[in-house]
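Sample intake sheet
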Amino acid sequence: MKHEYADVNGIRMHYVTAGEGEPVLFLHGFPEYWGVWKRVMADLAKDCRVIAPDLRGYNRTSRPEDVEAYGIQHLVADVRGLVDHLGVKQVTLVCQDWGALLGWSYLLRHPDTVKRFAAINITHPALFLRDLRENPRQQEASQYMLAFRAPGSEATLMANDFAFGRQALFADVRSRGADLSEGDINDWLEAWRQPGAMKAGLDYYRAARLGPPDGQGNPGGGNLVDGLSPEQLQVKVPVLILWGEQDPYLLQDGLVGLEQYVKDFTLRKFPECGHGLTLERPKEVVRALRDFMAAKG
């Protein structure tokens, strides 16, 4: 895999690419980095051009200091800048967690640059924001967002050499069958240890005002679709949704009403998998992506 950099939208973005053929762009979540896609990319690179950036603030990509620099309009502009830098007209966009909130937001704003769209464990943002405002089950599952947005919460996540992430991510995916080596974990820890990286990841939540009601008058939701018209919320490209049914943070309730926004979608559920589906079942993720791309030529 080849490591490269692109100067886009006022930042220097690190990305990794491999293979030749149809371009497939991967967007990671929190607290991840490009390497969460490593096994999926290695397989798909046999006949596709795969690209995975470190998003704004993560790992080897620039980290602005200001919270508002992580607003959705800046994140979307980063992705658009990378697509232009790559010199491609359209990509198949594959994303998860915060990367999927960004991916959907990008798709709604730049639909002409997306040929197909695949999201893991994240529904359309209008539905996710609805559930943060109205659904007690998703509100309970999302209480962590309020903790993440609290001042100084990065210190808690970094305590005891990232004990929280070691348990919530590494131990969890390994318990569900993920092949995560000590070398893989060291690469993750290196990304987390970059100065300011953990704060930058949390600034995504802060800038988006993302979360359930906070008990202080904020009704919950976020600003991810602010400024978009009803027409812009409609998705016209084929969509694949993969869902690990044991995800404790992102509930399938958000799929209710999806047909109002997406006319052509395929849903595949993984009953034994959790939030880390990409790490737990990389071969099955690749198979689902290949089937989707072939069916939606």
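Comment: The two ends are 26 Å apart (CA to CA). Residues 51 and 148 are 29 Å apart (CA to CA).
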